[in-house]
Design brief:
Layout: E1 2-4, E2 7-9, H1 17-21, E3 24-28, H2 32-40, E4 50-51, E5 56-62, E6 68-74, H3 75-83
Parallel strand pairs: 3-6
Antiparallel strand pairs: 1-2, 4-5, 5-6
């Protein structure tokens, strides 16, 4: 289980690794760069957040059992937050 604030993501043991490797979970966040900086302290190989052509700034984490967790923030949300 992974938790932050009121959000919990529960994982379960799956003997068929291809299931975990071919699915993902998407989590929208309010501050992609703050979350990335926080996770980078425990995941040093974490790739930087990138702006995608579909209007999201995103980074991805593959946990030890192969589950893909995608984190993203709408670029327009980030621009509004930086102007406040």
């Amino acid at each position: 289980m992974a938790a932050r604030g009121d959000v919990e993501i529960h994982f379960w043991l799956c003997n068929e690794k291809h299931i975990a490797e071919n699915t993902s979970c998407y989590v929208r966040v309010d501050d992609i760069h703050a979350l990335h900086a926080e996770l980078k302290s425990t995941l040093p190989a974490l790739e930087p957040a990138e702006e995608r052509e579909w209007g999201m700034a995103e980074f991805y984490v593959i946990e030890p059992d192969g589950n893909l967790i995608k984190f993203g923030q709408a670029i327009s949300d980030r621009q509004v937050a930086s102007n406040e």
